[in-house]
Design goal:
The mean pLDDT is about 90. The longest helix is centred in the middle third of the chain and has 17 residues. The protein is built from two helices and two strands; from the N terminus they run E-H-E-H. Helix 1 links the parallel strand 1 and strand 2. It is α+β, with helices and mostly antiparallel strands. Strands 1-2 form a two-stranded parallel sheet.
């Protein structure tokens, strides 16, 4: 596992749902903030996303990229790719 001051490894992304496909190695010289979340996570929506939105607004126009990385470690039927797409397209 990479440590502080080591180059982060590229991610193995199954499908990019929004934005252009990219990877960590392609973003050299930029700050990259990756928000890892689950679609069916109340804490992500009540605390995590508001914090990320606040940071996004603060660094708008700066060389800072914000990526959202949806994952699932429980409730696989709810934290699915289909539900992620619904969330992005419809906000539900």
């Amino acid at each position: 596992m990479p440590q502080i001051d080591e180059i982060a490894p590229d991610l193995n992304i199954a499908e990019w749902v929004q934005g252009e496909a990219s990877n960590i190695s392609e973003q050299k010289g930029k700050i990259l903030i990756i928000n890892v979340f689950q679609v069916n996570c109340p804490g992500c929506f009540s605390a995590g996303f508001p914090e990320i939105i606040k940071l996004y607004k603060k660094y708008l126009g700066k060389p800072v990229l914000f990526w959202g990385l949806a994952t699932a470690f429980e409730d696989f039927t709810l934290n699915s790719l289909d539900n992620l797409k619904k969330l992005i397209l419809n906000g539900e």
